[in-house]
Amino acid sequence: YPAITVQAGMPVKWTIEAPKGSINGCNNAINIPEYDIEYKFKEGENVIAFIPDKAGQFRYSCWMGMIRGTITVIEPSKGEAS
User: Fold this and answer.
1) 26: how many CB neighbours lie within 10 A of its CB?
2) Distance from C-alpha of 17 to C-alpha of 75, rounded to nearest angstrom
3) What is the largest CA-CA distance in the chain?
4) pTM of this prediction?
5) Could you give the CA distance from residue 7 to residue 54 in angstroms, rounded to a whole number?
6) CA–CA gap between residue 75 and residue 53 (Å, rounded)
């Protein structure tokens, strides 16, 4: 899974395309514990939405924990609302 970087306080709309035949027994769901998200993929466009509330680096994985990635949340730039 790819590493992504997002900004604290900004809504995230993460679109993941799952082409026909790409979903299997392991990658059919994603788990993002920090945001209490468990999302089951379907073929086509999948949208995962959340608002990160604090800076840090958070892991996410397939439902089995075998395929992993990280979400890095950065602080807002000066002058931007959080």
Assistant:
1) 13
2) 28
3) 45
4) 0.83
5) 9
6) 9
